Amino acid sequence: MKKTRVLLVDDHAILRMGLASLIGTEKNLEVVGDAESGEQALQKARQLKPDIVLLDLMMHGMDGVETTRRLLEDDPDARILILTTYGTSDALGRALTAGALGAVLKSIPFRELVKAILTVASGQRYVSEEISRVLAANPPLPPLSPRQTEILTAIADGLSNAQIADKLGIGPDMVKVHVNALCTKLGAANRAEAVAIALRKHLLKI
Fold it and tell me: What confidence tier does 84 reach under pLDDT thresholds 50, 70, 90?
């Protein structure tokens, strides 16, 4: 029987060890490697060519969303299952939009995790009922464009519209257009609320 080869990615060593031990009891699964960061995951995935990457959503440094994007840039056929303790609908939505085929909570029964791994490794989608409910109750916000992220970061740094215009080499009127579009997209009444929402939804890191 050909075993499904799994790469574990999580910034908690104890969790990686526990998962590796559990997965190792399955006759049709094999843990071929583990990584503690997104950067390390990219290296290991290139070396090991796993059938599936079991990927933590909220990691220090490069998070699960960016790691998903980078893994799929390296290998468009990569199969990624997001594993998370918790997650906002936006972070989960962005991971799935980025190309992850599935998402489950770390608290799910082990038999369901095995089912999720095998389903995603076969190229099919698997999103647990709990995560489906989170996404349905609080639909993810539309993703920000690179320019919007740039301007929102500048706002978070305390820059005025005029200062942002100077920094980015665009007109103040254009900055105002971007700020208004940001507020509309995020459902914010003003600049400060836009930053607060973006931070809460993990759309912005400062």
Answer: confident
CA dist 29 and 113 (Å) reads: 12
Query: How many angstroms separate the Cα of 30 from the Cα of each of 5, 93, 119, 151?
Result: 5, 28, 15, 45
SS3 annotation, 44-110: HHHHHCCCEEEEECCCCCCCHHHHHHHHHHHCCCCCEEEEECCCCHHHHHHHHHHCCCEEEECCCCH
CA distance 204 to 88: 13
Residue 61 CB partners (closer than 8 Å, separation 6+) = 37, 38, 39
pLDDT of amino acid 205:
66
Please tell me the distance from the alpha carbon of residue 106 to that of residue 116, in angstroms, as a whole number. Answer: 12
**Token output for 115:** 């089912």
Pair of tokens at residue 186: 């995020």
Q: What is the pLDDT of residue 22?
A: 94
> Residue 171: what are its φ and ψ, rounded to 5°?
-75, 150
What's the confidence (pLDDT) of residue 52? 97
Measured CA distances, 100 to 57, 60, 134, 173 (Å): 11, 19, 17, 38
pLDDT at 117 over 90: yes
- d(CA 51, CA 81) in angstroms, rounded, equals 11
**Contact assessment for residue 115 and residue 125, using Cβ atoms and an 8 Å cutoff:** no
Residue-averaged pLDDT of the chain: 90
